[in-house]
Write a structure and sequence with these properties.
This is EBNA-1 nuclear protein. InterPro entries: DgcN-like, DgcN-like_C, DgcN-like_N, P-loop_NTPase. It holds the Pfam family DUF1611. This protein is α/β, with parallel strands linked by helices. It contains 14 helices and 15 strands. It has two domains: 131 residues, Rossmann fold (3-Layer(aba) Sandwich); 217 residues, Rossmann fold, CATH 3.40.50. The strands form three sheets. Strands 9-8-10-7-11-14-15 form a seven-stranded parallel beta sheet, with helices on both faces. A hairpin with a 2-residue loop joins strand 12 and strand 13. The C terminus is likely disordered.
Amino acid sequence: MTIRKETALIYCENQFSLADGKTAAGLVRHSERYTIVGVIDSSRAGKDAGEELGQEKNGIPIFANLNEALINLSEVPNCYIYGKAPLDAFISQAERLLILEAMEKGMDIINGLHQFFSEDQEFTQMAAQHNIQIKDIRKPPQLQDLHVFTGQLSKINVPVIAILGTDCACGKMTTAIELNKSLKTLGIKSVLVATGQTALMQGAMYGISIDALISQFVIGEIENSIIQAFDNERPDIILVEGQSAVSHPAFMSSLGILKGSMPDGIILQHPPARKFRCDFPHLPMPTVESEIKLIEAISQAKVMAIALSHENLADEEILTIIEDYERQFQLPTMDVLNHGCQKIIQALGDHFPNLNQTIKRKSLEKMPVLGMR
């Protein structure tokens, strides 16, 4: 059964391809739920969204404003997505007016902020007047529907892999998405458990935005999402999207992911050219070595591969860093956007014999049978 995607226009003024525009970038790279028809960012108007992310042209135009987008698009999109993820998480008055205008045009509003638009009287009145929906992706379930940790993870008999990082907005979600797609291409039944708003917007069937939860329920909600994915899908492997970093002083989400997923292995994402933590210019980045030691001191699982972000690095530089890291840490290292996920998949096969047998069997099944007509 093919699910018809809704068309969507993403608002990302002055932030597309930057750290606070990670929601927009993630949706432009991959979305199972929406067909992205354009991005709003006046600082990059007239450019192609794919090229602005360092990839090939993808035909998604960047517009200067909402009016320009609606004039140039063949029809009004189904949805208007607020595609920025600022630290303060509040919209400006100008952004409020744009959202109201999008509602007037008949567009559903998709919001990933902690500021819930569905609890804003002006927004809800406008939504009712124009018969449109407001979807607050980060809005948690009702208290009676939340879960505490139960220990039922012990029944999971397939590898659970957490994709953690050394900082915020450094590529954890991208690596998780690309690995999930690559495994599926091989015929492996892989399921991604989302822990943030962007992956949920992209169409992840399991997960919850954990940074919007009461802390008592974070670990239990992660566990519950993994158990649901296991019971419903009977997968060969479960991937868990990471958030922030275990070492980050401002956020606790990685600790919840480590506890709630009890992973069998960890992939560590790192941006080598970044000197200071995203949004915190006075906090130096941790080293890969210190982050690995901290993760492995807290979790029984080991870091089994390193994935790199190539932000602010030339192709030659990233190749040199890959060689250096593999020599230093004795771990497969790659930039998945530029070089694919083969090294990670090989590492998974090396660590988990049952998964390795499945990978080999599925790969053989995909090979053509000579002599058949």
